[in-house]
TrEMBL record:
<dbReference type="InterPro" id="IPR013154">
    <property type="entry name" value="ADH-like_N"/>
</dbReference>
<dbReference type="Pfam" id="PF13602">
    <property type="entry name" value="ADH_zinc_N_2"/>
</dbReference>
<dbReference type="InterPro" id="IPR020843">
    <property type="entry name" value="ER"/>
</dbReference>
<feature type="domain" description="Enoyl reductase (ER)">
    <location>
        <begin position="10"/>
        <end position="306"/>
    </location>
</feature>
<protein>
    <submittedName>
        <fullName>NADP-dependent oxidoreductase</fullName>
    </submittedName>
</protein>
<dbReference type="InterPro" id="IPR011032">
    <property type="entry name" value="GroES-like_sf"/>
</dbReference>
<dbReference type="InterPro" id="IPR051603">
    <property type="entry name" value="Zinc-ADH_QOR/CCCR"/>
</dbReference>
<keyword id="KW-0521">NADP</keyword>
<dbReference type="Pfam" id="PF08240">
    <property type="entry name" value="ADH_N"/>
</dbReference>
<dbReference type="InterPro" id="IPR036291">
    <property type="entry name" value="NAD(P)-bd_dom_sf"/>
</dbReference>
Amino acid sequence: MKRFALKDYGTAKDVLIEIQAEARPVDETHVRVALLAFAINPYDVALRQGAMRDFRIVKFPYVLGNDGAGIVTEVGAAVTHVKVGDEVIVHAISGTYGEEIVAPGKKIVKKPAALSWEVAAGLVTPWLTTYNLVTHLLGDTIGQTVMVQGASGAVGSLLVQFLKKQGKTVLASASKRNESWVTRLGADQFAAYDQADAGKVFANQADTVIDATKGGVAGEAGVQIMKTGGNFVALNALPKEQTKTGNYLAFGPSKEYSDFEALTALTEVADEIQLKIAEVLPFTLASVIYGHEKLEGHPSAGKIIIKKEQ
């Protein structure tokens, strides 16, 4: 089967290669899925660049990818919630950059009919982040008014929608070009960071601030927006100047979070969730390289998806 792998750390065009791999056996707890779409995530780019090498050991050739969607072709005897022929969403430890994946049954759920292949694949990691951050990291401490910085991105846009479903008042910031998108998702108030200082616009208004940007000046503005004693959650870097008393939390994956719980919750709201897809690219090595290079810059809002022809 065809897969796209890293042969080393480095630039996309130098280290991403196409390989032919043998199919893995399926034990009683696993499921084989013929993949029809997979997402390229910023994490993949960072791993390929070597940013994780001090704490994430990989053996080359290494197949990237955590998020995918496809059709079940084989099911282990202990797995009862999916069957051969089911359309499913997959969250794998790695390996979705390819024609098939063998993954634990607990990391797979049926794909709702409301989701296209590309949206299903694109939702996985952003939804897991959104759900676990709000439900488990913060829980009842989140408060009523929440600020989402980077609200046009995949995680930011899902946060806006998920928080509104919970009845929260949502403040949001993104670039001016994405204002209409963010407000359509339900944000109560919006500040364009490229036209105004969101820190001043929303000063001391949020019980919780979630920084879904790459960090930097957004963190300083977020501290201004957070009420004294509130929560500041960063998906990337926490602000260096924590000039206000509060709970400063860095969100990251945890073994305590259940993929099956979070993905099941996604299936329950799938017909109401919107995700912007920037580009859907053909199932080729050139597409994967292009997607990585695109994400290294400052791309417009939306996920990059690789989709296989059916």
